[in-house]
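We append the chain.
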Amino acid sequence: MVAAAGYDALQFGSLHDAKYDSVGRRMATASSDGVVRIWCAESHQMLAQLPGHQAAVLVVGWAPKKTLPVQLVSGAADGTILLWREQQGQWHSVHQLTVRGSAVAASFRPAEYGLMLAVAGSESPDICFVTRKEVVASAVLPAGEQWLSKPMEAHRAGLVALCWAPAASPATLAAGPAAARAAARAPLRLVSASSDRSVRIWRCDEKSEAWSLQHELVEAGSGPAVRAVAWKPNLGIPSSSIAVCFEDGLVQIWWQDMEGQPWNVQTSWSIGSEACRLSWSAAGSLLAVSGPERSLLFKESWAGQWAQACQL
């Protein structure tokens, strides 16, 4: 990990987030000194520093390789969201927007659906969807790009996390006539979590671009706060899984047999201390659960049951 091999907390401040790019060659880190840093994943050497935020950077996210030219997003404690682009080895901020409260989520959807970014703030019930549009030269405006933001009210209170569903079609591993009639990709969905404890799944009609509430996994109410949600990567099977973690250390795996069926808790366990972040491996066989003091790696031991593999 870059955080262990090259990141100097005394010099850069607390490390709030770290993400690999889509091919695993570089990592971006979010620091409390307001700087985004790019690292070589192999050598652990710092490749670039991206100053631009006036507050601690809390979240970073890479765009899928196929959705260039935008490459990176970062969000800070003052609600500022910056979009970054690398040109001839130099990084530049190409767009800025603001969310209410602290930036708690900033994530690009899978490349199969085209360029779109979802961002959320801690004091807003909205998810803001950001898209890019090419502007044709006219007598009024020069040629260039335009960024469009469209909010969607997702909860009654501020957001704490969101995650896009994978794009893999449930019929990837199927054969025969049914596979030939199946869609090439899964429906566009995402899961969001709020400070009111609710966890909801949303689906987008790609023709009308309208979002609708599909399921509510956890209803709003009292109890331990939700800290993170993570949709499990799908390699082409009909079922779907979502991991949810809470401030008291509870981790839940929600499971859906196939699209249109109800969601249920497949299994749950406690890590014994606060759980803040979740991250799946690329194949979905490992789940990392991180807290303020440690990170634990879990592996599915047999159908639906998870066991700790190691502590990082």
Q: What stands out?
A: The chain has a mean pLDDT of 89. The domain at 157-312 is CATH 2.130.10.10 (Methylamine Dehydrogenase; Chain H).
